[in-house]
Amino acid sequence: MFLNCHSYHSLRYGTLSVKELVAQAKTLGIRELVLTDINTVTGIYEFKKECEDKGIKPIAGVEIRKDGRLFYIAVAKQFSGIGEVNRMITDYNCDGKDLCETAPEFDNVLVIYPIGNIPEVLKDNEFIGIREEELTLLIRPELQKMISRMVVLQPITFSTKEEYHLHRILRAIDHNTLLSKLEETDICRKSEYVRAEKSILEAFQRYPEIIENTKNMFSCCSFEFDFKKVRNKLNFTKSRENDLKFLTRLAYLGLEKRYGLDHEEARKRVEKELKVIHELKFCSYFLITWDIIRYSNRMGFMHVGRGSGANSIVSYCLGITDICPLELDLYFERFLNLNRKTPPDFDIDWSWQERDTMLQYIFDRYGKEHVAFCGTNVEFKYRSIFREVGKAFGLPKEELDNLATKSEETHDRNPVVDTIYKYGKLLEKFPNQRSMHACGILISEEPITNFSALEMPPKGFPIVQFDMYTAEDIGLEKFDILSQRGLGTINDTVKLIKDTRGITVDIRDTTISKNEAVANEHLAQGKTIGCFYIESPAMRGLLRRLKCGDYRTLVAASSIIRPGVAQSGMMREYIFRHNHPDQFEYFHSVFEEHLKETYGIMVYQEDVIKIAQYFGGLSLANGDILRRAMSGKGRSIEKLREVKANFFESCKGKGHSEQLAAEAYRQIESFAGYSFCKAHSASYAVESYQSLYLKVYYPLEFMVSVINNQGGFYRTEVYIHEARMSGASVQTPCVNTSEYQTVLRGKDIYLGFMLLQGLENRLAHGIAEERDRNGYYQSLEDFIRRIPVGIETIQTLIFIGAFRFTGQPKNELLVEARLLLINFKPENRGLLLIEEPVQEYKLPQLKREDFEDAFDEIEIIGFPVSCSPFDLLKTSYRGSVFVKDLVIHHKKQVKMMAYLISRKHVPTKKGTMYFGTWIDVNGDYFDTAHFPDSLSEYPFQGGGCYLLLGTVEVDYHFPTVTIHKMAKMPMIPDPRYAYDKDKQYDIHRQIKEDVSMTSRKPYPQAHEIGLPRQKFQ
C-alpha cells in the first residue's frame, strides 16, 4: 500500500535513511515498497539491495515536484521506466526545459496524480492517488466516477513525532525561514508516517476497487537490475577483439620507444599484462585513457599518471604514466589481478589551468549522453547544523556565530539551545545537498540517463545523482581527472625559461628529472621550498634526516611521511635503519627477502600485502581486502579484522610462533590509516624531482611560476623571499611594467596586480591590456583618462608605487589624483581626440619618512618588499647564533632573532605543542619545537620577529631548537601616522604567519615503537 516513500535523499524533506525505511517496513510486515524521492533516484540502488536483503519487493519511482508543489508520482513498471523519468528530469535540470503539471507520454511508467492536480483526461497508465483523510471527498459526483482509476496514496516521510518535528526543521532550513513562518503547503501532512498495512486496508474497506487497483499496480511493477554487469564503455573500437589488437599494437610501439627492441624482461611483462587486461575486459578502459593522454600531448599539456596504474608496464608504454615498473620493482597485481572484484582506476593530474580543457574534450569526444561526473552527498556538518537549525528557531546572528564557531563546552545552555542540540544530533550524517565529485568521471556504454537523472552544478559539467560508491556498485568505474598547482608551476616554468632564455627544457627526460647531481645535493639539504610535495617543514626535515640524495630514497620519503606510516612509528624506525644499516637484524627471513629495499619495514601498501601473503599465507582475495582497507575505499581497522583470524590460522600452519605472528600482524594492522602504494609515491617523487631540477637551475623562473600558481604550502611572501635569496631584485607593481601575474625582466621580478588587496580582477587585467593596445602610460593623468578608476583604486596604486615612473613623490601624486578626479568627466574617458594640456599645479614639497613605503606594502600586499622585516625592528640586535652554525651547537643553548614563517599544531599526550619554521637575518630557514610547558608561559603572538632562547638538538643531521622562552619583538611605529598615536600599530597586525592545525593522534616516541631489531627465534 506504500506507493510514495521518501528517504532523506529527498533533500531537506525526508527524515529516514534508506536502511531505516526498509528496516521499519520489515518490522511491520510490509512486503512491497516503492521509493519515490523528490526529483531524484539517488537511493534506488541501495533501496533494492536493502529490500531484497529483508525479503521485501522493491519498486523504483520518483516524485515530481516543482517549487515545492507536487505534480505527480512516477512509478517505473520496469527498470527502463526509470530511464524515461531520468531523461525528463535531466532536461529540466540541465537544458532548461520546464516540468509540466501533467506527465509526458511514458512507455514503462505508471503515473499517480494527487487529488489537487487531476488532469482533464487520464491516459491508460495514469491514476489518481487518494489519501485516507481524503476519502470523505468521494461523495462528490465528479470524484465518484473516477474511483475505478484510484489507488491508495499513503506517503511516508517520517516515523515518529520527533521525526515530524525534524521534517519541519528541514523545511524551514530549505525555505530559509523560521519554523513559525512555515505555510501548511511547505510541510508534509501529519499522516505521512510508517504504519501497518492492516490499518490502511481497514480505512479503505468500503472501496475494494481502490485496494485492488493498488495491488495491481504493485504486481505489474518490478525492479530488475544486475549489479554484476559492467556498464562502462565496453569497446573503444568496434569490438573487444579489435580493442585487444589495437592495445597490443600501441603497447609494442611504446615498448620499443621505452626499452628498445631487445629488452626481454619488459617484453614478457607486456605479454603477461595484456593477457590479464583482455581477460578482465579492461582493454577499452586502457584505450580511453590513452586517447585522453594523446589529446593532452597534442595540446602540449603536461600530465602525471599516478596511483596504482603506474604498476602497469602497459600504461608506461602507452605514455599514461612515466614510471618504469621494472626499475622500482612494481608488481602489476597491485593494480590488476584475476582475483580483483572491481576494476581499478587511473589517477591523471593536469595543471589546474588546463583541466577544464581536458574535461571538455572528454565530454565532446564520448558524448554528453554517455559522460558525467560522479556526484557526492554533502552532509550537514557540525557548524552548519547549529547555524541552520538555530536560524529556524530564530536565534540572532551573534548567538548563531557563537554556536557554530565555539566548542560545546562554551555554549550558554538554555531550553532553545538544548532543542537545537537535540535536533542537530538527529541531522548528523543527513545529506544536505548534492555536489560534484572532485575528479571522478563516468563514461558509460548505454546512455547515462538510463541509470540516473543528471544535475548541473555551478561548475558547468553535469553530475549523476549518486556517489562513487554507488557508481562502483552498479558497474560504472570512474576515470579520475584531477588538477594541481604543482604541475601548473612546472609547466609555466618551462614556458618561462623558453621565453626568457630561449632554452627548451625537456622536463620529462628522466635522465635530468630523476637523477641529477646538483639537484641531489639540494635534496639532501632540504632546499626544496616551492617544490611539489617536498616543501613542508616536516618533509624538508625528513629529507635532511635521511640525507636523501637520490630518487629511490625520495620515493620512500614520499610514503613514510604519510599518516599510516608515521603514526605506526615506522617512519622513525626507517630513519634509524637508513642511517645505521649495521645496527639491526631482519626479524624474519621473509622480511629480508621481500622488504630489503626498505630495511625490513613496511612502507608501502604493497609491502603489507607481500607480508600478508608470503609470511602469513593469505590468499590474493584477502590481500585485496587489505588493499582496500589501506586505500580511500572503506579504510578502517574493521576491514583488517576480517582477515585477522585467517592470518593467525595460516601462520600457525606455517610454523610461526604465536609471538612472531602477533608482531607481524601488529605491524600490518598499523597500516589501517591511509598510506601510499609504491607507484603513487614514485609518481609524486618524479614530479617533486622535476620541480627541484627547475628550482636548482632556473630559480627565478621557477619562483615566479610558483607565485603565479598561487604557491603551495606557504604564503606568497615566502616564495618572494626565496626568489630574493636566489638573486632576484623584487619590485612592487608598476603600471608600465607589471602584468596581472608576476613577471620576470632579467633579474627583476615585478609583482603582479593580482597580489594587490582590494584591486578588482577586471581592473587588474585591464591595466596591462590597455597598455598593450595603446602604449605606455605617460603620466598619472594619462592613466586616469584611459582606465576607469575611482580615487580608492588610484590611492592603492600610488601607495604601492605603481606610478614611480613619473619621478613624483607619492604625496604629490595623491594630491594630483584628487585634483584630476574632481574635474574629470568619466564619459570623456578614451574619447578625447586632442589631449588638453595638463593644468599645472604648484604643490608644496611633501616629505616622506623612511620606511613609509614598507608600511604601505604591508597594508596592500601583506608584507614589506622594499626592506626586510628585521629592518623594521626597534632593536638592532640580530641574535648571537645564526642558522649556518646550528649543527655545531648540539645540546647548547642559543639566543636567536628570527622572523616567523609558519607553525604547525601537533597533539601530544601532554597537550598541544607546535613546530615553528623561521628565517634568521641572513634569510636561512630553521625549525623550532615548542612544548606545552613552554607555550603556556611563552605563547605565539601572531606574525613578526621573535627573540628565541632554546637548546639545539641535532637529530640525524637535522638541527631543531627546542624553545624555552620567546618574546615577540616590537617594531617601529608606523611613520605614516606620526600624528595619530591610536593608529601607529594598526598595520602591524597584518603581518602574517602560516598556521596549520592537525587533529591526529600523537606520533609514538622511540621507546614506544617497539619494532624488533633482532631476529625472532
From TrEMBL:
Signal peptide segment: none
The protein's Enzyme Commission number: 2.7.7.7
Keyword Transferase: yes
Record GO terms (molecular function): DNA-directed DNA polymerase activity
Cross-referenced Pfam families: DNA_pol3_alpha, DNA_pol3_finger, HHH_6, PHP
Disordered: annotated segments: 997-1017
Keywords, comma-separated and alphabetical: DNA replication, DNA-directed DNA polymerase, Nucleotidyltransferase, Transferase
Catalytic reaction list: DNA(n) + a 2'-deoxyribonucleoside 5'-triphosphate = DNA(n+1) + diphosphate
Domain of life: Bacteria
Domain Polymerase/histidinol phosphatase N-terminal per the UniProt entry, residue ranges: 1-68
Keyword Transferase set for record: yes
Protein name, as recorded: DNA-directed DNA polymerase
Organism expressing this protein natively: Chryseobacterium pyrolae
Gene: dnaE
